[in-house]
């Protein structure tokens, strides 16, 4: 017996980062045996900010290959592309009509992201409603995400509760966030007050899952630290704290153990050790990724997405039908 249904997704707005891996993907791989799991590539979310069509298409396929390279097994998980299941957009509309402007205005991610845009699109504002639709469509019990998505999970729960109580019916399962203790908040290597993001204009700020060994080590050498020259897990040393966090979430050592390991050793050696540990962890992932890139795997990749979309559509259709009935739409 599986313990419940898990659902999560990542936007194909670039090559995935070490943050996506430690905060999400790695945990997805760990739970694939115990739960019924559905993972998608959130292309509808990606267009909430401008995207180059060619890059978006390529990044979607690359995201799937990164999912597989990180160890997601297509025979154990339903893997699909969000836009292949039209019910996401349809449910989002119904939920839009059950969500308040005030609650969306409080979303911190909207506040951050909208500041970086010249013309802020309505989709960026509505984004959490689409995310709620993704989750509620499959009646997910748990949603494994990084810390930055906690608020979006809260609003999903609010929207689901409100819909259920408005119509006096348990149409939606109330989902819970699954946030791991380590790696849930990996910060930028250049500005440790900001989260590491795949769309950061400065490539030195993030580690891409496909960065080669020399690039990874170079980025860690250039990571922002401080002048204290002491490896301490402290809020006064956010850069160092982030490096300890990365190192401990890969090695499984506690921050205290890491502090002891590098006691009296300068930042140079510490950064080198973190860089090498990350490069070692990403090496097998990259090997698998480049194998998958071979043209003969094209069919295999297409098939995973085709089958995934079929299974996902079946489940999505059931929920949407119930929502349409409950909402009061006249049936055919
Ligand atoms: P996205 O694409 O920004 O990130 C994908 C996942 O990676 C996590 N993550 C991080 N974890 C730790 N440190 C970081 N620096 C870091 N950066 C990203 C995110 O928390 C996330 O788990 N809105 C979502 C995609 C989405 C979704 C959903 C997720 C759309 N619909 C439904 C779950 C359920 C997003 O933009 O993730």
Strand percentage lies at 5-15%
Per DSSP E runs of 2 or more residues, the count of β-strands stands at: 5
Broad structural category = mainly alpha
Helical residues, percent: 40-55%
What would the principal axes of the Cα set say about the shape?
globular
Radius of gyration: 21 Å
Q: What features would you describe in this structure?
A:
The chain has 332 residues and is mainly alpha-helical. It has helices at residues 18-31, 43-46, 53-69, 87-96, 101-105, 108-115, 122-137, 150-167, 213-221, 238-251, 255-261, 267-292, 298-327, and strands spanning 5-10, 36-41, 77-81, 142-144, 176-178. It is globular. The model has no long low-confidence stretch (mean pLDDT 96). It binds tryptophanyl-5'AMP. Tryptophanyl-5'AMP binds next to strand 1, helix 1 and helix 7.
Outline:
By secondary structure, the protein is mostly helical. 54% of the residues lie in helices and 7% in strands. The protein has 13 helices and five strands.
Topology:
Layout: E1 5-10, H1 18-31, E2 36-41, H2 43-46, H3 53-69, E3 77-81, H4 87-96, H5 101-105, H6 108-115, H7 122-137, E4 142-144, H8 150-167, E5 176-178, H9 213-221, H10 238-251, H11 255-261, H12 267-292, H13 298-327
Parallel strand pairs: 1-2, 2-3, 4-5
Helix pairs in contact: 3-12, 4-7, 4-13, 7-8, 9-12, 10-12
The chain binds tryptophanyl-5'AMP (TYM).
Tryptophanyl-5'AMP is lined by residues 7-11, 19-20, 22-24, 42, 45, 131, 134-135, 143, 145-146, 148-149, 184-186, 195-196.
